[in-house]
Every structure is written in C-alpha cells, then in structure tokens.
Batch of 2 targets.
Target 1
Amino acid sequence: MTEPITTPFGFASTADEVLAGVDLTGKRAVITGGAAGIGVETARSLAAAGADVVLAVRRVAAGEQAAADIAASIGAQRVTVRALDLADQDSVRQFVADWDQPLHILVNNAGIMALPELERTAEGWEMQFATNFMGHFALTVGLHDALAAAGGARVVSVSSSGNLFSPVIFDDLHFAFRPYDPLLAYGQSKSAEALLAVEVTRRWAGEGIHANALNPGAIATGLQKHTGGLRTPKERQKTPQQGAATSVLLAASPLLDGVGGRYFEDCAEAPIVSERPADYSGVAGYAVDPGNAERLWSVASDLIARRGTGRLPRRPGSAEPAQDRPSGWYDWGGGGSCGRGRMAMAGRLPGRLLLRREDSDRAPLIVALLLWVMFDAMPGLWRSVRRSGESGVPDQLRHGQRPR
Ligand SMILES: NC(=O)c1ccc[n+]([C@@H]2O[C@H](COP(=O)([O-])OP(=O)(O)OC[C@H]3O[C@@H](n4cnc5c(N)ncnc54)[C@H](OP(=O)(O)O)[C@@H]3O)[C@@H](O)[C@H]2O)c1
C-alpha cells in the first residue's frame, strides 16, 4: 500500500495558485464543457500558464463568449472553440476525426446532474451515463493516438462525491429494470468516470499517458439546476476558481508527474472508503477497483460497437477505426469466414475479420471442421468427380440416371 499523495495545496487553493510558476507553453489542452462553471476556470488557468486551450462545447456561441472573456482576462488569444455534444456519439466521432495534432491534456469536465425524469439517448442509453461517461469514454479512446503522440499526456476525469451514491450497476446500466433515481444515475456515471482514469492508466501508462479522477468540491454552478441550487453549508463551498484547482493540479502540475489511476479531492489523494462518510469525502472502493475498470471498458466498447453502424471511434485524421479495439474483440486477420451470426466486420477495415471472444471458444471445433473438409470430405468428392471422367459428369448421370 503506497502512501496517499499530498501537495502543498488544499481546500481553499485556487487553480491559478496551483499553476503559479508552471509554464505550459507549447502544450495543447481540450476541456469539455469549457463554456461554463468549473470548466471556464480550468481553461482560464491553463491558458494563463501558456497552454493552447480548446473549449469542447455543445453551445458554440457560449463557448465563443467564454473564450473572449478568458482572452480579455489573461491578455492573450490562446483559447479556441469546437463543437462537441457528448450525448451524441456522432458528434464525438466528428470531434475526434477533426483532431489532427498531439494532445497533451484532456480534461473530461462536462457533466449533467440529477435529471428529474429518465431520459435516453438515441441508442437508449440513460442520459447521465451517456453524457458523463460514454461520451468521455469515446472521446478519450478516439483521441488515444493524439495523446500518445504528445509524449507524456494527462487525462483528467472530473468525477464527484456522487461516486459514493452508486457503483456501476453492470446488469442494469440504463435503468431498464430498476426504478429510475436521478441521484443514483448521477452516482453511477461519476463512479464510471473515476474508473475510466484507472483503466486509461493501466492500458496507456506505457505510452506516457496517465489519468486521474477528482471531486472538485461544492461549487454553485448551473449543475444544480435540477436540485434547487447548492445546499452545501457556506463554509464548505468553493468558488469556481477553487473548484478548478484539483483539475489543473491533475492536468498540468509537475507534482503529479507519472501518477495515474488515483482519485483526488482538495488537491490531495482521497481516502478509499468502504461506507459513505457523513461529509461525503473520499472515494468508494468500487470506483477505483481495477477489475471494475477493466470490465467497464469492455462493456462500454461493446455498447459503442453495437450501436447503429457497429463501428468504433475513428483515429484522428484516419479513415480507419481506432486500433485500440475493445478488449473483448480479437483480430483474427485474413478474410476467412466462420461463426455465423455474431461475426462482425470492423467498419471499413478491409479483409479483416473480428470474432467475438465467446466465438473464440469454438475455435478448435471450427478448425477441426475445416480439417475434415480439406482432408476427408474433399478427397472423396474429388475421387467421385474423377471417376465420372474428363467431362466431370457425375456417376449417376453417366449411368443414365436423371437427377430428381
Ligand atoms: N459544481 C459542483 O458542485 C460539482 C461537484 C462535483 C462534481 N462536479 C462536476 O464538475 C463538472 C463541471 O460541472 P460544473 O459545476 O461546472 O457545472 P456546469 O456549470 O453546469 O458546467 C457543466 C458543463 O458541461 C456541459 N455539458 C452538459 N452536457 C453536455 C453535453 N451533452 N455535451 C457537451 N457539454 C455538455 C455544459 O454545457 P451547457 O452549458 O451547454 O449546458 C456545461 O458547460 C461536472 O462534471 C460535474 O459533475 C461539480
């Protein structure tokens, strides 16, 4: 067990304080939901430290306004805006397809909370899970090559103390069986975001990509529009600049170099708790569990693969699907065919055949069948054809019989 990570910063630190003296010149950052609340302050501080920042927003006009405000406050034009609707996988795919540069920092910040009624995306996914997790999952996987190309990239999952309200319920992600509950749905999505950081680090740390998750604290923003505003006692509330402090710590502070797969709050690693504390501090064990993280990645990959086109997010600037395929899929190469029904061609990947993992269990049977056809059945048929003479007329016809 390693010691929890601490920093000189804490509850009241601001994002600007955390980045004081940090030079991000030449670094590129994407911040989802950067047009409002904590996202704006995250963008402001990263840009003030020299980073080129892209606000990935669903309301482009609001994004342009935020970019102009930031430019005025830092005295430099380092913030641009691109359209991204995380609840729409086609929009995510387009954002990824349009991205063609190395990416040093990805802050998965956008979020919605406690939609009063059950809402679903076009795929039928529960809306908070779809926006807060599935959109960010597809974005992160889609930007993998750009992150790897940065030669040391950070991914930040803006989670929440909401993680303490629900694990990811793998058997009913979209409330098809259990009654919909606005906070349980939010909690599930925030546990999922924390797990994304764990699995990104496990998979990609070798490529210099590290991811961590965080709870920003209690900040009065548009997030609470469905819950009647922020009810946290005043002394435990933060300003948006303070709320962005842990985000920028994970995104850009040298104090966190090489650290990944962890969950922070108040600029320090949070304790892992086995029951929900009265002050909602800490992270539930299930939200940082490596087994859950690996399973979620596989489940999310399958959800995306099965939607509409059945294609995976594309690499930046490439006509091919991302090579980082879901872990449940094997690339068998070649162009053969076997295992009817669940066989799936991977987008436009020519001549490639993907078999699902459960089909791989049948591989010995399929190979035996092929061998039997090649060495037993085929020679028999061939002998029969040869016996029928040069014309290739089957025996029964040579002997004057007519086929029925
Ligand atoms: N504020 C808190 O107390 C608190 C506590 C814990 C965790 N958090 C987390 O902190 C993050 C930022 O929240 P905030 O407090 O800054 O809330 P906010 O002011 O409401 O900002 C959320 C941002 O996410 C964007 N967004 C929502 N749905 C989107 C979609 N489908 N596609 C793209 N963008 C979308 C929003 O865009 P629109 O402006 O177009 O709606 C908005 O810019 C969230 O992940 C939230 O869960 C906040």
Target 2
Amino acid sequence: MTAVLETRALDKRFGGLHVTRGVSLQLNAGDRLALIGPNGAGKTTFVNLVSGVLAPSSGQVLLNGEDVTDRTQAQRVRAGLARTFQITTLAPHLPVQRQIELALFERERLTGRAWRSIDAYPLLAAEARALLGDFGLAAHAGLATELLAYGEQRLVEMALAIALRPRVLLLDEPMAGVPQGEGTRLLAALAALPAELAVLIIEHDMDLVFRFARRIVVLAEGAVLADGTPDQIRRDPMVRAAYLGA
Ligand SMILES: Nc1ncnc2c1ncn2[C@@H]1O[C@H](COP(=O)(O)OP(=O)(O)OP(=O)(O)O)[C@@H](O)[C@H]1O
Ligand SMILES: [Mg+2]
C-alpha cells in the first residue's frame, strides 16, 4: 500500500536553530495519528513543511507516492492535502454557507463562476447543505462566521477542509481556545470524519489524544522520539521522562 503522506528525512533550520531533524513518517488511508510533544518541539513547523508553507532545508514530502517537495500549497491541496491552522484563518464577514460554497467552487475549479448562485449547480448545493448538516452548522448557515462561537468557527474550518475532499487532513490544535462546553461538538465532528481519510492531529489535551488516536508520534527537539500505539506510548519510559511526566 502506498502511503498517502510520507516524509523522508525532513530537516529544517532557521539560521542556527535546527527545528526539524530527520523526520521520516508515513500516513496511510484511515490513519488516526496524533503528533505530540512539548511546546517548541517543532510540531507546527512539521505541518508547515508538509503543507508547503515552509520549504525544508533538506528531505522530501510525498503525497500518494509523488514527490511534492517543490510544489506550492495550492498544488498540494489539489493533490489531496488539507489542513486547518493553529490560529483561525476564516474570512470573518462571509456567511458560513457562502464560505462552504466557495470551497466547493474552488474544488470544482469553478472559481471564475463563484459569483453565481450555487443553485445553478444542484449537486454542489446539495453537498453544501450536507456539509452544514454534518458539522451541525445548518442553523447558522446565513450568519457571518465572526458571529459564531469560537468552537463553532473551528467547526466551519473543519467543514471547509472536508469540502475539498482531501485524502489527508492535518489539524493543528483544533481544540485550542475552545471553551469546555463547546468541546463536545468538536469531538463528535472528529469522530465522524470520513473513515478512509488519513488524519494527523496536533493536540496538547492528552485525554483527546488517547481517545482519538490509534497511533501516536512524539516529537522532541525536532526529532521523532517515539512512534507507536497509544499503549506503547503510554508505557514508553523515554516519553514519560520527556513529556508525559511520571
Ligand atoms: N519562522 C520561524 N523563524 C524562526 N524560528 C521559528 C520559526 N517558526 C518556528 N520557529 C522556532 O522553531 C521551534 C519550533 O516551533 P513550532 O512552532 O514548530 O513548535 P510547536 O511544537 O508547534 O510548539 P507549540 O506546541 O507551542 O505550538 C521554536 O523554537 C520556534 O521558536
Ligand atoms: Mg504549534
């Protein structure tokens, strides 16, 4: 089976700072991988290298076996990679439904016609409604995104990523800043992600990590410290010393 995402000896230096050190990882269809590690371990940098926000100092990124190291972010999205950001990056004034529609137009390469009503494309209109329903956003479809609760904005972000029909989804701290009371809906949305999608999630909340992940990779000082099942990681003395505490 070809990995949907593979990194080979990824390395990144910012001047004298060696932030990513020889990270080789494979993600297969249906994986639920949590990438954990202390603050500054290089988790976000890794996602930035994979998604093309940053160019590596050396090493490769492959999507479905194809080397995309020199491709732009947009080209990687076309190749099946979607991500959300640690800090929300939505267009705040646009209604939720419109944002989803624009993502669908984008996916179908209809952006030149995005000024048209989506009703001219009944299949896309139905898909937009389904996405709003799946992520529990139907009641707020007409509201500007900035008027939604923070946790709901994260749901919009996830819906936008899924609208692109990715094969790999990278989630950088989706629960960050989400109040306790809103967390349940996000957890439900995570649990309901398409089964065949490969998901990599960065998260500091260990409850969520151990509930969601079927595999955990621990990053420390830019390098992979451990890679295993939640049980293996829980018992790994090196991980406990470096991160989980005794
Ligand atoms: N553009 C940059 N220029 C210089 N240094 C950077 C840059 N981006 C990140 N770094 C440094 O790289 C290291 C890793 O940062 P990164 O944001 O990847 O960590 P992280 O594991 O995501 O941490 P957190 O859990 O706090 O989000 C840090 O020391 C950070 O200061
Ligand atoms: Mg980070």
